Amino acid sequence: MKYLLPLLLFSLFACEGNTAARKAARGPHFVTDPDYLFFKNTRLRHYQAEEQKGSATSYRLDKLMASEATLIPVLLDNWLEDQATLRFDVRRTPTSQAVTEPFRLDVTKDGKWEAIRLSIPATNEEIAGIRQHLVTNRELRLVMASDTLIAFPGPARAAAREMLDDYLRLVAH
């Protein structure tokens, strides 16, 4: 009984969380266990999952796949390394297969189109910027060698924002 209080105090201070230190050491795409469990337990049912080579799984939001979206964000979960990234695929028509191909993403600002910088893989800041454009109702378009398409027409905007929110929550950005 006399050891109970010191044991309790020791356990409180010994279990100091180090999530921030682990994230800093592992990079901006690091996924913490609580964030991963939240995604798997509450959000996963809204996604189509596809196993990739190695230890990765790709996820596409059902609502986006059912919409007329031409830009399809794909969440890549490398669960073995506790990392997640976002890739953007292009789908020319609602019934065609989404594929990875080169494109430029433009946004309307003050009535003019401006190019958005996108790295491969996209940084969390770039993804948050695209999300902000969706929130503020700015139009996004894909410019490819042979075509120019609206990225998220109509209801696809809300679905795209939902997908980007899920990714940003997953990587705690």
| Strand runs, count | 8
Question: What does the overall shape look like?
Answer: globular
Counting DSSP H or I runs of 4 or more residues, the number of helices is 6
How widely separated are the two ends?
Answer: 44 Å
User: Helices and strands: which structural class?
Assistant: alpha+beta
Summarize the structure in words.
- With 173 residues, the chain is of the alpha+beta class.
- The chain contains 6 helices and 8 strands; from the N terminus they run αααββαββββαββα.
- A 4-stranded antiparallel β-sheet has the order 1-2-3-4.
- Helix 5 packs antiparallel against helix 6 (156-170).
- The longest helix is centred in the C-terminal third of the chain and has 15 residues, at 156-170.
- It is globular, with a radius of gyration of 20 Å.
In short:
The chain has 173 residues and is α+β, with helices and mostly antiparallel strands.
Strands, helices and their partners?
Blueprint: H1 4-14, H2 19-26, H3 33-43, E1 47-51, E2 56-61, H4 62-65, E3 71-78, E4 83-90, E5 104-109, E6 112-116, H5 124-135, E7 140-143, E8 148-150, H6 156-170
Antiparallel strand pairs: 1-2, 2-3, 3-4, 5-6, 5-7, 7-8
Can you tag this structure with a few keywords?
four-stranded antiparallel β-sheet, 173 residues, alpha+beta
